[in-house]
Amino acid sequence: MEISAATLIAILQIVWIDLLLSGDNAVVIALACRSLPPKQRKIGIILGAGTAIGLRIVFALIISQLLQIEFLKVVGGLLLLWIAVKLAKGETAEEHAVAASDRLWRAVGTIAVADAAMSLDNVIAIAAVSKGDPWLFSFGLALSIPLIMVGSTVILRMIERFPIIVWAGAALLGWIAGEMIAHDPYVVATFAIGPDSKLPYLLGAIGAVLVVAVGWLLKSRSRPADA
């Protein structure tokens, strides 16, 4: 089967997004389970990963249908812009803190609550890139599963060593958000957006610049508080 250039680009975008947004899930699982007895720690990690994966599947089923409704791609695009700004800004120590638990089910509950928002972020981003293609959507969802369970430590070390990866990823999400808004059924009908229209590229560029600018501003303001 021959893969088109557009499909290949979408696959690379999905891989990048999964690398950036799946790592935090694994970190949350590790932090929540760190105080469990050694015998329960492995069970907690497995149950936590299963919870994160289950949330992704539920969100995937819901979001893939909702994005076909007018205005919801606009809402999804705006939400994706917020996700991108949050990614660029980074988290303060207080925001990233996850309480450790010495009880298995309490740890799993902590993981479920913390993972809900992060799983939603990941699924919305994948839905935006796939643009209704069920194969790409399934690929993105499937790829996020092993990334949650293995390899997150390596990913986080790369991000810590090369911060530009985060900024580039945030700009990519901003671009995708702009394109997502441009492809909303209402926007397409109102502005008569055709296959050759440059509006999706314009909104994509605006989204990328906006995310980097706002993220940089918020990060600069948060530095004195962190210090």
Keywords:
mainly alpha; 227 residues
List the helices and strands and how they pair.
Elements: H1 5-33, H2 38-66, H3 72-89, H4 93-96, H5 104-130, H6 134-149, H7 152-161, H8 164-182, H9 185-190, H10 199-226
Helix pairs in contact: 1-2, 1-5, 1-6, 1-7, 1-8, 2-5, 2-6, 3-5, 3-8, 3-10, 5-6, 8-10
Describe the structure.
The chain is built from ten helices and no strands. Helix 2 packs antiparallel against helix 6 (134-149). The radius of gyration is 18 Å and the shape is globular. The chain has 227 residues and is mainly α. The protein has one domain. Mean pLDDT is 75; it is low at 92-97. Helices cover 82% and strands 0% of the residues.
The stretches of 5 or more residues where confidence is low (pLDDT under 50) are 92-97
Mean pLDDT: 75
First-last Cα distance: 54 Å
The total of beta strands comes to: 0
Shape: globular
Number of helices: 10
Largest sheet: none
Roughly what percent helix? over 70%
Number of domains: 1
Secondary-structure element order, N to C: HHHHHHHHHH
Report the radius of gyration as a whole number of Å: 18 Å
Structural class: mainly alpha
The oligomeric state is: single chain
Beta-strand portion reads under 5%
